[in-house]
Design a protein that fits this description.
Elements: E1 13-19, H1 21-38, E2 43-45, H2 58-65, E3 67-74, H3 82-98, E4 101-106, H4 111-115, H5 121-132, H6 136-154, E5 159-160, H7 167-182, H8 196-208, E6 215-220, H9 227-238, E7 244-248, H10 251-257, H11 261-273, H12 278-282, E8 287-294, H13 297-304, E9 315-320, H14 323-328, E10 333-336, H15 342-354, H16 364-374, H17 378-388, H18 393-404, H19 411-420, H20 425-438, H21 443-452, H22 457-466, E11 471-472, E12 478-479, H23 482-493, E13 505-506, H24 509-518, E14 527-531, E15 538-541, E16 553-557, E17 559-562, E18 574-578, E19 596-598, E20 619-621, E21 642-644, E22 666-668, E23 690-692, E24 714-717, H25 727-730, E25 737-740, E26 743-746, H26 747-758, H27 775-780, E27 786-792, E28 797-805, E29 811-821, E30 831-834, E31 841-842, H28 848-854, E32 878-882, H29 904-907, E33 913-919, E34 924-930, H30 938-946, E35 953-960
Parallel strand pairs: 1-2, 1-3, 3-4, 4-5, 6-9, 6-10, 7-8, 8-9, 13-14, 14-16, 15-17, 16-18, 18-19, 19-20, 20-21, 21-22, 22-23, 23-24, 24-25
Antiparallel strand pairs: 11-12, 25-26, 27-28, 27-30, 28-29, 30-31, 32-35, 33-34, 33-35
Helix pairs in contact: 1-7, 3-6, 5-6, 8-9, 10-11, 15-16, 15-17, 16-18, 17-19, 19-23, 20-22, 20-23
Length: 962
């Protein structure tokens, strides 16, 4: 996990729908929304479009940010809506920064026309900006952002309505795709799986014939041939049939990166994903394990060397470029990935070059010639095809002439065509930075660093993804094919093969160590990483950095610097020093340009002697600093966005200046066990979205003023001294995920349980004079306008309340209906009823259990001779009531509550009950015999409902069957 990824927020919605309602709402979008809902996909549909203000409000912003997938429906008049474009701008930001999946649907719109704003779309976009934005600068800014968002979104592979026979077929395919993407257990596979199914089925057929043994499969092929893609596809299709499963990728890369790579994989990946100890976890269980890109026999031995610990029917898949490793393992079957044939090669190339399965007319001959030089290598077809998308004929001819001069075996040179074709040096710099330092890091984290270097991460990373030079993997991590990584590093190395101190980037341990110990660094060096290969700190003199005046990126792990810190570059943007040995940051260390500053596992007791201006700093990470007692003064860190101080056990004070940080959106103080309180000013943080205090055992309360945190969506305060959920938490307007006092999950799922706890007989904290805490519940259930609450206190008082809300979620009527003395209750129930189509919860510890598992439909609460919603409260066997005249045919349930005042000795005789429903209007009688807690099955209820009409006079009798 990257150092900035301190917490993964839970999603509030599965899908956010962005669309132009006048074009699509009443047909395509409504049908799509219904299909998604029927498939169990939690979808946000902004029917009202909330166009009351110029800017997107916090509720809508939360819906966009809190969705796993955004579906953008591009229609003919889409770009005439500034609201749609503003939503799209936010959606694409979430894609860039948080890895949100974006799925475009081109609803009778040509993607290429939209991509380049042709055929009048450009003028329409300008008109929208002019109409909606006041001021020339604002219009210009909006227009640029909208153009970028449109281009970026229309370049994503999506769904074109013109290529499907019916909308029903298209919607069905979209729903299937969404369900597949929502399966978090799946690994990412290629965007265009040409020829993949044939490979997958061939391997699976062999596996299925080996069910009586532990099956070991080898997948062999050259780099870029599709070994990983094939194994991922097998894993996706097959993993659900196994009790345990794990996909471990990039083994060769990890083991090359650090000497202890095998141990790292064994402990951090396999053990965390599949087992704590291989023998204990796998014994007697069927398992599927994929070991991807193995380069030595010892790697497999270290990870899964003993087949005996796997149960029969288990499958181990190993991919490798070296067939001798697979033979030495004595695998049961080696699947050799061959070069793609000419037909499939042309199809794969065309998908990347034209977004279609066949070349366009003018490019047919050129496409065939270029494909021939790619020699059936999928990676080359993908990279070169992506590079040539939307280019002129002359540019295609130029690429072909370069390919003609490159020998067949020089794959790197073929791939380099795409790198050389990058128009801007900033894009090349971003590619090389990621190649050398940031593969596997969080995209948002890397974007902060790259933006801090003035390299424009937003557009740069997007271009690299479009060119297939970079991918965004699971959990928003940046990924890159090994051949592309090697190509990029070779570009850096070849600029100074013999003198590493004259290279722009130093990532290899021996090269970095040589430069630092021999004092051979030059102003050419822009980035350097040195990780100690042992637990003993490497000692380096600071003077060795004197000539590296352009050093932007520096990471030191367990390195001890001696000398004056003034020698370190003033151009540093990223400084990651794990195991910092000083007690405070030296005064002569210039920090003015730092964007990310990380001192994890440090020895600091205080951050610095005197607060220094760091107006560019975005991320400050001081986690695992065992001696740190207080945070720094934040008054000169005006643009700080993330504060991460996990596991600082002596930290006891947070400086009050934290409340002045207007851009701070993450605070992580997990496991700071000496921290007993937070400054009051912290509640003024209106931009804060995530607050993590879990494990801070001395924190025992949350202030009511937390309500001022109007942007807070994620609140994690488990394992602390806080014993009860404050009312202020429920009232937070934007809260989406809560982990507090044993309650954990999405807020709309947690709220009901929290309120039930407040109404428990053991609690005496129910807020009877202020019902604002219920507003979030009403807001989350748009149909809800009236709430009845009945609760019992320890002294047997039953209190009933009725709260009515208006359209703005203000309670306009709140009355305490009645207070009853009910003596000697043997059974006590706590009931929340809501007059809307939602689940009814019956909350008692005994008679409510079965009912809460079965009642899940609409209901009405019968009125009558009682002031509350109970039909009958006196002693006796019957309850007369009248069916509401406005209930019509949609009535789906009746709630009957029976309160027994008998003793425990006589209760046993009354355990079997029956219900008689007599309709005096229709002259019908129905008898039902059930257990104490009962619910009608579908057939029974149809009989009941068919004999209960609006306004009917009915008597319901409880009857004992002896």
């Amino acid at each position: 996990m990257s150092s900035s990824s301190s917490f993964t927020s839970e999603y509030v919605y599965d899908v956010f729908l962005n669309f132009r309602g006048e074009d699509t709402r009443f047909s395509f979008v409504s049908h799509l929304h219904a299909a998604l809902s029927n498939a169990g996909v939690n979808t946000f549909l902004d029917d009202k479009k909330l166009e009351k203000g110029a800017e997107i409000g916090p509720e809508l912003l939360r819906a966009i940010q809190g969705s796993r997938i955004s579906i953008v429906v591009f229609s003919k008049t889409y770009i005439t809506s500034s609201w749609c474009l503003k939503e799209l701008e936010q959606i694409m930001k979430c894609r860039r920064n948080y890895g949100q999946v974006v799925l475009p649907i081109f609803y009778h719109v040509d993607p290429s026309v939209l991509r380049h704003q042709k055929d009048g779309y450009g003028k329409a976009l300008q008109a929208t900006a002019k109409r909606r934005q006041s001021g020339g600068e604002m219009r210009k800014y909006a227009l640029i952002n909208w153009k970028i968002a449109l281009t970026e979104a229309s370049n994503i592979s999506g769904w074109d309505t013109t290529k499907f026979g019916t909308e029903v077929e298209l919607i069905s395919r979209i729903v299937e795709d969404i369900l597949r993407k929502l399966d978090s257990g799946l690994s990412n596979i290629t965007e265009y799986p040409v020829g993949l199914d044939t490979r997958v089925q061939q391997v699976i057929r062999f596996i299925e014939n080996q069910s009586s043994k532990v099956c070991l499969i080898g997948i062999w092929g050259m780099g870029g041939s599709g070994k990983t893609t094939t194994s991922r596809a097998i894993y996706n299709q097959f993993h659900c049939k196994f009790v345990e499963h794990s996909f471990i990728e990039n083994i060769r890369e990890v083991c090359e990166k650090e000497n202890k790579g095998i141990i790292h994989l064994q402990q951090q990946q396999l053990l965390s994903n599949v087992l704590k100890t291989i023998e204990k976890r796998f014994m007697g269980k069927r398992a599927l394990i994929v070991l991807d890109d193995v380069s030595t026999f010892e790697q497999v031995e270290a990870l899964c060397g003993n087949r005996k610990c796997f149960c029969s029917g288990s499958v181990l898949i190993v991919t490798s470029r070296d067939v001798h490793i697979l033979k030495k393992l004595k695998v049961d079957y080696i699947y050799s990935i061959k070069e793609m044939d000419e037909i499939k090669s042309l199809e794969l190339f065309s998908w990347h070059a034209f977004r279609e399965p066949c070349p366009k007319g003018d490019f047919r001959e050129l496409s065939s010639s270029i494909v021939a030089y790619c020699r059936g290598l999928p990676l080359a077809l993908e990279v070169i095809g992506s590079y040539l998308r939307d280019r002129t004929t002359q540019e295609w001819i130029s690429v072909l002439s370069k390919l003609e001069r490159i020998p067949d075996d020089q794959v790197h040179e073929k791939l380099r065509i795409s790198y050389d074709g990058l128009k801007k040096d900033t894009e090349k710099d971003i590619f090389l930075d990621i190649c050398c330092f940031f593969i596997g890091k969080d995209r948002a984290y890397v974007s902060e660093i790259i933006d801090g270097c003035d390299l424009y991460a937003g557009i740069g990373i997007t271009v690299l993804i479009e060119r297939s030079l970079l991918k965004v993997e699971k959990n928003n991590k940046l990924g890159m094919h090994g051949l592309l990584r090697d190509m990029g590093r070779e570009i850096v190395r070849e600029r100074s093969i013999k003198l590493p101190g004259k290279r722009s980037r130093l990532w290899f341990h021996k090269d970095a160590h040589k430069v630092l110990t021999e004092n051979s660094g030059t102003e050419t060096v822009e980035g350097l990483v040195l990780k100690s290969q042992s637990t003993i700190n490497v000692c380096i003199k600071t003077e060795t950095f004197k000539e590296m005046k352009n050093l932007r990126l520096l990471r030191l792990d367990h390195v001890y610097l001696t000398g004056a810190f003034e020698y370190l570059s003033k151009e540093l943007r990223w400084f990651h020093w794990q195991g910092f040995t000083c007690e405070y940051i030296p005064d002569d260390f210039y920090l003015g340009n730092l964007v990310v500053f990380e001192l994890k596992h440090s020895n600091i007791k205080q951050v610095w002697n005197e607060t220094k201006l760091m107006d560019k700093l975005k991320i400050l990470n001081l986690s695992h600093s065992k001696h740190l007692t207080r945070t720094p003064d934040f008054s000169k860190l005006p643009n700080l966005e993330k504060l991460i101080m996990k596991n600082c056990p002596r930290l006891s004070e947070v400086h009050q200046s934290i409340g002045d940080l207007r851009n701070l959106f993450l605070i992580n103080l997990k496991d700071c066990t000496s921290l007993s309180n937070l400054p009051e000013k912290i509640n003024q943080l209106k931009s804060l979205t995530t607050l993590i205090l879990s494990g801070c055992s001395k924190i025992d309360r949350l202030e009511e003023s937390i309500l001022q945190m109007e942007s807070l969506t994620t609140l994690v305060i488990k394992d602390t001294g806080v014993k009860e959920v404050p009312y202020s938490v429920i009232r937070l307007k934007s809260i989406g995920y809560i982990s507090l006092c044993g309650y954990e999950g999405l807020s709309h799922d947690v709220f009901h349980s929290v309120i039930r706890s407040w109404m428990s007989p053991t609690m005496n904290t129910f807020p009877r004079n202020n019902w604002d805490f219920l507003t979030p519940i009403v807001r989350s259930l748009p149909q809800l306008r009236t709430i009845w609450i009945q609760c019992h206190s320890e002294n047997q008082l039953t209190q009933e309340f009725k709260i009515i809300f208006d359209d703005q979620y203000n309670y306009i009527n709140c009355t305490e209906l009645e207070v009853l003395q009910i003596p000697n209750l043997s059974l006590r129930s706590h009931l929340i009823g809501m007059s809307c189509p939602t689940v009814m919860d019956t909350l008692g510890n005994s008679i409510s259990q079965g009912l809460s598992n079965n009642v899940s439909s609409n209901f009405f609460l019968p009125g009558g001779n009682h002031a509350s919603f109970l039909a009958y409260t006196g002693e006796g066997p019957s309850a007369p009531f009248q069916v509401p005249k406005d209930v019509d045919c949609h009535m789906e349930g009746i709630v009957l509550r029976v309160v027994y005042s008998s003793t425990s000795e006589t209760m046993a005789a009354d355990c079997l009950t029956g219900v008689l429903i007599i309709n005096y209007t229709k002259c019908t009688i129905h008898i039902y015999k059930r257990d104490t807690v009962m619910s009608f099955n579908d057939e029974d209820w149809k009989n009941v409902a068919s004999n209960l009409g609006p306004g009917d006079n009915v008597k319901k009798l409880k009857h004992i069957f002896n």
